C-alpha cells in the first residue's frame, strides 16, 4: 500500500483528530491560528488504493528572512503509524517531498512516541541520590522497546535528534520530558490517594481557608495575565503577552467550545492563582499556571490543580498532563522545585523521542543552525 501526502481542509483534519482517543493540542487545525508568525497547513496521508485518509499533521511554515524558503515544523506530530516497519519510505518520504515542493529547506517534527517512564517514587529516589545528575541516567520504571526501533529507523533515514529550543523565532521546540498522571481505569478517590501527603494536606488547607476555584471566561484573561507576569518575574522567564492568550482562547474555543478553560482561585476577594487547561479527546493538559507570592499559606495553587484534575476526570480524561519537566537533578537548578511540585501528584515522568530534524537544503539548514547558535 503506497501513500500520498496532500493538503487537507480544516474540517477533514479536525474530523481525523476527533476520531482518535488522543492527539496533541498542537496538532489540531486551530493551533495554526495561535501562531500568526507561521503559515499553517493541514497535511493528510491517503491510501492510494482505497483513497482512505490514514494520517494527518499540522505543519507550521516559518519563512527564512529575505528568501522564499521555510522551516517546516510539526509540533508533537504528525499523527501517523510511527511503529510501521516502513516508516521512513512509506510515511515520511512523501511528507518530505510534499514539504520540499512547498519551499521547505528543513523539517522539524516531534514524534508522539513515549520511550521511558519513571514512577513518582523513582523520580523522588533519583532526586535524593547524590550520584544521580540527570533523570535519563537513572533506571526507568518501564520502557517501550518499539520506541528504540523508531529512533533507529529515523537515524538510518537521515533524521537527527535535536534538543528543544526556545519558543520564539526559529527556536521551535517542545519538551522531551513531561509529567503525566494516568487517569484511565482509576476512580477520583484513587487519584486523590495517589497524591503525596503534602499535596493532600495543602488541598485541605485551601478548603479550610475558604479558597474558591471558579471557571473564568475571556474577560478574566487580564487577571490571569497579571498573575502570570508576576510569576515570570519571580521565576525569571520571559512571559508571553496578553494578546497571545486572547488569541489562544478565541482560536481554540472557536474550533471546540471546551478546548481551553481558565481556572481562577479566589480568596477574600482576590485572585491568588490561575491556570489554563487544554483538552483534545481523552488527553488533558495543564497548560499555563500563575500565582502571586501573597498569602501562599492558603495553598491556592494546589486548589486550582485539584479542581482541574477533578474536572478532567469527570470529562473522561485518560491522562492529565502537567507538561514539561527538567531532566537535571541538580539542586542548584531553579526548575527542580517545579519537578518536585509535579511529582507530588503521584504521576510519572515520561520521556518522549524528542524532536528530529531533516535538512532538505543542507547549506540553508547549516546556516540556520549557526544563526541560532550565535543569536
UniProtKB/TrEMBL annotation:
Cell wall biogenesis/degradation among keywords: yes
Highest taxon above the source species: Bacteria
Annotated keywords: Acyltransferase, Cell shape, Cell wall biogenesis/degradation, Peptidoglycan synthesis, Transferase
Pfam families per UniProt: FemAB (PF02388)
Gene3D superfamilies the record matches: 3.40.630.30
InterPro entries for the chain: Acyl_CoA_acyltransferase, FEMABX, PG_Glycine_Bridge_Synth
Family stated for the protein in its record: Belongs to the FemABX family.
Protein name: Peptidoglycan bridge formation protein FemAB
Annotated organism of origin: Streptomyces asoensis
